[in-house]
Structure formats: structure tokens, C-alpha cells
UniProtKB/TrEMBL annotation:
Family note: Belongs to the dTDP-4-dehydrorhamnose 3,5-epimerase family.
Subunit structure: Homodimer.
Gene assigned in the entry: rfbC
Source species taxonomy: Bacteria, Bacillati, Bacillota, Bacilli, Bacillales
Keyword Cytoplasm attributed: no
Any one Gene Ontology molecular-function term assigned to this protein's record: dTDP-4-dehydrorhamnose 3,5-epimerase activity
Originating species: Paenibacillus rhizolycopersici
Identification of the protein by name: dTDP-4-dehydrorhamnose 3,5-epimerase
Length: 179
């Protein structure tokens, strides 16, 4: 797989080789040696997925230290606009974000280091997102940033949101716990 660095240090877009034949496609989403060569985390503690419909926006989510985690995310059905926002105060890209279209057709993957808030907006009729995380869920560490902050230009300013996502503080008001 090709590992493409993003603007944000430690955040990568992974482009796996897709094998097509008469049955469909086969995509490898994880390869230990490729991750290890780039210094990426390889010990994932939980894996889960979400199903969402068009216009749903989930995020921007993260876990605070000491339960912060690396995320490896990809879309197995449909297409999403995936966004990460750098929350690490000592990072040269603190407060900056990147956007990547993830889709089941192109099979790309996003590797998100600790200290980044993550969210996505569903572009297709439905989308299924898979998440691998390097720490187990900790309710007391679970947090988020309001989706309208951080200078992110979403494709829809009236998305379908959870009450939880509506209630997060804006990035500008949030005191980051990430060094």
C-alpha cells in the first residue's frame, strides 16, 4: 500500500492495492510491516463501525489523555468527507484541518494519530465507516469539538446531527489537553 503524508504530521492517507476480478474487489486494509516502517501504531484495542445516511455529520470526536488513541478509519459502503483537526498544542499544524474523501470504491484509508479530532459527513445515500482504535473506549475521556469551528468548510451547514454533537464547545473555546 502507498502511504501518503498529509499536511498534519503523523496523519496519513493509505492507498491500498485493489485487486479486481469477475467477483468484485479485494482490498487489504492493514499490513503490519507497512505500518511499522512508517512508525505507525499497530496494536488496535477495539474495532467498530457506524452506518449513516446521506447528510449525517458525525464529529468532531476524540478521547482525552490518558485514554487518547490512534484511529484507522475507512469506508466500506458509500462515500464520506472525512475531516481531522489538529488539537496538539505543540504541533506546527495546531488548529489546522485536512479533508479527505473516503469511499468504498477507491478503498482509501485514513491513519489518524493521537491528538486529532475526527469527524465525517456522508455524501452518498448510505455509508458504513470502520474504525480501529488503539485504546478502549473511556466515557470519562470521551470529548469533542463543535462541528462548525476550526475553520472547516462543510458541504452542508444544516446536516443531520446528534444532540451530543450539537453541544460540544467550539475549538476556539476549548482548552486542549494534547501537548
Amino acid at each position: 500500500m502507498d502511504v501518503i503524508p498529509s499536511l498534519i504530521p503523523g496523519c496519513y492517507e493509505l492507498l491500498p492495492r485493489i485487486i479486481h476480478d469477475t467477483r468484485g474487489a479485494f482490498i487489504k486494509t492493514f499490513h503490519f510491516d507497512s505500518f511499522r516502517e512508517k512508525g505507525m501504531e499497530t496494536r488496535f484495542q477495539e474495532q467498530y463501525y457506524s452506518r449513516s445516511r446521506k447528510r449525517v455529520l458525525r464529529g468532531l470526536h476524540f478521547q482525552n489523555p490518558p485514554h487518547d488513541h490512534v484511529k484507522l478509519v475507512y469506508c466500506t459502503e458509500g462515500e464520506v468527507l472525512d475531516v481531522v483537526l489538529d488539537m496538539r498544542r505543540s504541533s506546527p499544524t495546531y488548529g489546522r484541518h485536512i479533508k479527505v474523501n473516503l469511499s468504498s470504491n477507491n478503498g482509501n484509508i485514513l491513519y489518524i494519530p493521537k491528538g486529532l479530532a475526527h469527524g465525517f459527513y456522508v455524501l452518498s445515500e448510505h455509508a458504513t465507516m470502520v474504525y480501529n482504535v488503539s485504546s478502549t473506549y473511556s466515557p470519562e475521556s470521551d470529548d469533542g469539538i463543535h462541528w462548525t469551528s476550526g475553520g472547516i468548510d462543510w458541504p452542508d451547514m444544516d446536516p443531520i446531527l446528534s444532540d451530543r454533537d450539537r453541544g460540544f464547545k467550539r475549538f476556539e473555546e476549548y482548552e486542549s489537553k494534547f501537548i
